[in-house]
Amino acid sequence: MTRAGIFVENQLALLGIRYLLDAEADIQVAFAASTPFAVAPGSVDCLVLDRGLLGELPPAVPAARTVLLTRGPEPGSERTGATLPLDDAPLLLVDAIRRVAAPGPAPVRQGVATLSPREREVLGHLVEGCTHDQAARRIGISQHTVDTYVKRIRSKLGAHNKAQLVRAALTIP
Predict the structure, then answer these.
(1) If we measure between CA atoms, which residue out of 103, 83, 30 comes closest to residue 61?
(2) Where are the domains of the chain?
């Protein structure tokens, strides 16, 4: 049995995800909330997290493996398909939870909890498919500064390329 926790801001999405997961025989919803709170280690196998709440997670939360949700592309933005939009088929979410919560060793890295708020912001833009230049313009900093943040993030998450970086962000252990 996979124990899942849900942190999603939108109440309708929160209720829909809970309803979807409650219908699965092998997934038990441990909690569903619109505001993150500290989660006891080992209390959940997987955390379903709204990308907008990534920066609000208490340090104890990233002990679980995480499925990161987004609301879809902003008008005019490029999209790489690296994140799981809320409007995609519900079966994709259930499949993602099963894959993330599957037994096996978690990747060895320090984790997203060690990232600074600015590093989390940069990472969020990269997960949405932004280039370094696009992220820099959205945040109001230089592309060189974004490059520096990305190097630090890769080091902290143990990612050697952008694909590993995005995967690390989407499967927070």
Answers:
(1) 30
(2) 2-101, 112-170
Of the candidate CATH numbers 1.10.220.30, 1.20.1250.20, 1.10.10.10, 3.30.70.1230, the domain formed by 112-170 belongs to 1.10.10.10
| pLDDT tens-digit map of 31-79 | 999 988 888 777 888 888 887 787 787 765 544 577 777 655 444 334 3
Give CA torsion, residues 145, 149, 154, 157, to 10 deg.
-170
- Specify the pTM: 0.53
Q: 91-98 long-range contacts, Cβ below 8 Å, gap at least 24? A: 93/17, 93/20, 93/48, 93/67, 93/69, 94/20, 94/21, 94/24, 94/27, 96/67, 97/2, 97/4, 97/21, 97/27, 97/46, 97/48, 97/67, 98/2, 98/26, 98/27
Class of domain 2-101: alpha beta
Could you report the per-residue pLDDT of 128-157, keeping only the tens digit for each?
A: 888 999 999 999 999 999 999 998 888 877
